[in-house]
Design goal:
Blueprint lengths: L10 H8 L10 H13 L3 E3 L1 H12 L5 H15 L21 E3 L2 H4 L3 H10 L11 H15 L4 H8 L2 H8 L14 E3 L13 H21 L4 H6 L1 H31 L3 H16 L8 H18 L11 H4 L1 H9 L5 H16 L1 E2 L5 H5 L9 E5 L11 H9 L9 E6 L5 H12 L6 E4 H10 L4 H4 L3 E3 L3 E3 L11 E4 H9 L3 E2 L5 E2 L13 H33 L3 H5 L2 H6 L17 E7 L1 H17 L5 H9 L6 H8 L9 H20 L8 E5 L5 H6 L29 H11 L7 E4 L2 E4 L6 H17 L4 E6 L2 H9 L8 E3 L4 E3 L5 H9 L2 E2 L3
Parallel strand pairs: 1-2, 2-4, 5-6, 6-7, 10-13, 13-14, 14-15, 16-17, 16-20
Antiparallel strand pairs: 3-10, 7-17, 8-9, 11-12, 18-19
Helix pairs in contact: 2-17, 3-4, 3-7, 4-12, 6-7, 8-24, 10-12, 10-14, 12-13, 14-17, 17-19, 19-20, 20-33, 23-24, 23-27, 24-30, 27-30, 30-32
Length: about 850
């Protein structure tokens, strides 16, 4: 590691420099052996067993109700998928036959593009973000999966159903494009996932088990009398029963396998462990969990089975673990069955199971937006109880400490912070952030609870929200919105406002409205009006995408397991994927996301206002000609643009442009509401889409060159906020429009050097910054605590840094798994300095 001898390093950097496997605290030899084996396996590989058995079942059940077919498919998977238990495993269950990273395949979602997607992965072999597809995998895709699903999957039929102009703005003008690529002017995510980020009610499974859930479904089924209910609700309750049977069958097969292995094992310690695994799997999740160990195993079986059921956007989020696992932990602790150290080892086994599951949609467009094999199964800790008291308990600290020793990017911890968060807990959170792995991220009760209440949820229920995905939140038994959203490229909108709706990267194709040549705009208000019209047009198409997906999903996608864990779905006897038809009492808000360029647009509009209209330092001809040439031969003009006023520095009129952009979107959404009083929400959550979105966006008036990444989330442009983190937060607060309920969570990344938070004084500074963030009612924040020199050295010597973890967006990943463009974007992020 190229660092000065006196450089201050994070715990992660220090461990890499010294060659230590453990960053902080301790980890058992078992856990370290498992981690070494997983990391030695190499890049993720597609695993096709789920897809094969799902397809076999669907072939046999054609013509039957979809939710019933889905449950039968889960039952077929549970009965046939290989059962594998590896040495040292304590928490068992996997959909593959190797100890290493894997990616499930969902042909019902994107089967039409499977062949092209697999070929793209094979062609990219050796690239840092390439999924492994073997020759045998490719044969199965070509000969078994593709022939059945070609033309039957959701992706292809969604694209066909779109109006031509909405199809063009997202999928372009190529008539042969069936969803393999997207334009990145607007990105539709409903074709990349069955569901947006989601949190099942795991506590329900732990306290009632499949037995209790099955009994409820059976009672509701037997109570049906009306012919309409027998026609429409009966298949749902039958599917719920079948799904409970399937999950229990899956666990029983592990119980039988563990018992067989125990009988053949010579090592007495491992034989005892296998016997315990067999007993646990024979009991849960069929029955309620009696012990902490049973609770964790039941949670993992449920989490894994939810993955087998559907592709949830950022993987299945695991909810408020320190709340629903606490009763069994407290009981075991009091009765001497467990210690905090033993609980940490069980958690670490669970984290290693989690980290092996990655996403590999066959869409190359999806892969571009989720670099580093993104998945973020967020573990929520802290926050408040439904009665409004602080929810921190002993298990909150055990969960924090369990994440610190390992050089892994999982779990994705999310701490809920509120005005009365205890100093001890906030201190512990800050110390873990300082380790440098980018975790935990923080969500703010002072924003989220009022947001839920403003959308019709009682405070008691709002206080029980769980973190979900990048920076989102969910109420597991109140929200029903599962359909993936569409995403806006704010940089491309800027380009269309300056080029009469045309996009240079796509050979000047017309993507937007004809708003005129800016050379004829006499005032800045005319520039803003052009931007506003382009923005509203793009938002219109995003909403069309969502409505189209809502109408189609019940014909193509179901989720009986997730639905049977949801109060409203069980009451209504309807699968959650029918939420396009309103669930009485539900919160069903769809979203419009920003994929990048919010600050790019603010700074560009500010530069135009300042340089052309206020100071008249530049003419339109000078600016537009320089941008068309990508600043070639116009470096002096580019420097003038770079040094124009920038968002993030406490300049109120600049920050106000961001407020105006957000307000425009929300007022458009308010003027076109969903039925039953439901809303479209605005969020700025780019994941890594701001990198490919930048690649199709020409040079922008803020001085950014063509093809370079756009700004990330809600934060200022890279390196442009120079007044320190407190001023940055103040600017973000001014640029955020909270006057309507349509504004939901925005993603806020912040980077600092370890020296800036060193020692107890540094911890206190970080805690103070978090308190300021909370008091300003921001929704979300997350930190990279790492030296720039380490990142630069990792680019040059990746073999030394194979386990270096960095914060990307709402997830963390290994730096060496990122493309050079994404690595450069992280390096370029502003390094904040606290005084």
């Amino acid at each position: 590691m190229s660092q000065a001898a006196d450089a201050v390093l994070s715990s992660q950097e220090r461990a890499i420099l010294e060659g230590r496997k453990v960053l902080h605290g301790t980890a058992s030899e078992r856990v370290l052996r498992l981690l070494d084996t997983i990391r030695a396996y190499g890049p993720p590989r597609v695993t096709l067993d789920r897809a094969i058995y799902f397809t076999e079942s669907f072939k046999a059940t054609e013509g039957q109700p979809l939710v019933w077919r889905w449950a039968k498919a889960l039952q077929h998977i549970a009965a046939n998928i290989p059962v594998t238990i590896f040495d040292d495993e304590l928490i068992v269950g996997r959909p593959n036959t190797w100890l290493g990273r894997y990616s499930l395949v969902y042909p019902e979602l994107d089967g039409t593009i499977m062949k092209a997607g697999a070929e793209a992965f094979i062609a990219a072999k050796g690239a840092p973000d390439a999924i492994t597809v073997t020759d045998e995998d490719k044969r199965i895709i070509d000969e078994v999966l593709f022939p059945y699903w070609d033309g039957k999957d959701f992706c292809r039929n969604f694209i066909k159903a779109l109006p031509p102009d909405s199809r063009h703005i997202t999928f372009g003008s190529d008539p042969d494009n069936v969803g393999v690529m997207q334009t990145f002017v607007v990105v539709s995510t409903s074709t990349m996932r069955h569901s947006q980020n989601w949190v099942p009610d795991f506590g329900k499974m732990l306290t009632r088990g499949c037995k209790g859930l099955r009994a409820e479904a059976l009672a509701r089924l037997e109570a049906l009398e009306h012919p309409r209910d027998l026609a429409l609700r009966k298949p749902f309750y039958e599917a719920a029963i079948i799904t409970c049977d399937a999950l229990s069958l899956f666990a029983r097969r592990y119980a039988e396998r563990a018992a067989e292995m125990a009988a053949q094992t010579v090592n007495p310690q491992r034989r005892k462990e296998l016997e315990e695994i067999a007993a646990i799997c024979a009991w849960v999740p069929e029955n309620p969990a009696r012990t902490f160990r049973e609770a964790i195993q039941a949670q993992w079986f449920t989490q894994l089975f939810a993955r087998l059921e559907e592709l949830v956007g950022g993987q299945v989020n695991v909810g408020r673990m320190d709340q629903y696992l606490y009763p069994t932990y407290k009981k075991d602790l009091e009765e001497g069955r467990i210690t905090p150290e033993a609980a940490q080892e069980l958690f670490q086994c669970l984290w290693l199971n989690t980290m092996q599951s990655t996403e590999s949609q066959m869409s190359p467009a999806a892969a571009k937006g989720r670099q580093g094999f993104s998945h973020h199964e967020t573990v929520t800790i802290g926050g408040q109880t439904p009665d409004g008291f602080d929810a921190t308990n002993e298990l909150s600290y055990v969960l924090l400490e369990s994440t610190r020793p390992l050089r892994t990017s999982y779990p994705e911890l999310g701490a809920r912070i509120h005005a009365n968060t205890p100093e001890r807990f906030l201190h512990a959170v800050a110390e873990v952030i300082k380790d440098g792995k980018g975790s935990p991220k923080l969500l703010n009760d002072e924003f989220m609870v009022p947001w839920f209440m403003g959308n019709g949820v009682e405070r008691r229920e709002a206080l029980d929200y769980a973190i979900s995905g990048c920076s989102e939140s969910r109420l597991p038994n109140r929200e029903t919105g599962k359909t993936g959203n569409s995403m806006v490229n704010y940089g491309a909108i800027m380009e269309m406002a300056l080029r009469d709706g045309r996009i240079k990267f796509y050979n000047d194709e017309q993507f937007g409205l004809r708003t005129g040549d800016p050379r004829g705009f006499a005032t800045f208000d005319e520039v803003w009006n052009a931007y506003r019209l382009q923005l509203e047009n793009v938002v219109k198409h995003c909403m069309i995408h969502v409505y189209t997906a809502l109408a189609l999903k019940p014909k193509y996608i179901a989720a009986p397991l997730t639905s049977l864990l949801h109060d409203l779905a069980m009451e209504q006897g309807r699968d959650l994927h029918t939420h396009g038809e309103y669930f009485p009492g539900a919160l069903d808000a769809s979203c419009i996301d920003g994929m990048g360029g919010f600050a790019t647009a603010i700074d560009s509009l500010a530069a135009i206002k300042h340089l052309i209209y206020d100071t008249k330092r530049l003419s339109w001809d000078q600016l537009l000609d320089a941008m068309e040439r990508n600043w070639e031969g116009s470096e002096a003009i580019r420097q003038i643009c770079l040094h124009a006023p920038k968002y993030g520095n406490g300049i109120e009129w600049v920050d106000a442009i961001g407020y105006r952009i957000q307000r425009t979107i929300m007022e458009y959404a308010r003027s076109h509401p969903k039925p039953h009083g439901q809303s479209f929400n605005l969020r700025l959550i780019p994941i890594t889409f701001h990198v490919p979105a930048g690649m199709v966006t020409m040079a922008t008036p803020n001085g950014r060159p063509a093809g370079e990444y756009l700004s990330d989330g809600i934060v200022p442009s890279h390196g442009m906020d120079t007044k320190g983190p407190t001023v940055t937060l103040e600017s973000i607060a001014r640029a955020t429009c909270h006057i309507y309920r349509e504004h939901r969570e925005d993603l806020l990344n912040m980077k600092m050097s370890p020296a800036n938070v060193a020692g107890e004084a540094g911890t206190r500074r970080l805690m103070q910054l978090i308190r300021v963030w909370s008091s300003q009612k921001h929704a979300h924040i997350q930190f990279n605590i790492i030296n720039r020199e380490s990142l630069l050295d990792a680019q040059k010597h990746p073999e030394k840094y194979r386990d270096l973890v960095v914060r990307i967006a709402g997830y963390c990943a290994y730096f060496v798994d990122l493309t050079p463009a994404q690595q450069a974007e992280i390096i370029a992020r502003t390094e904040e300095q606290m005084g």
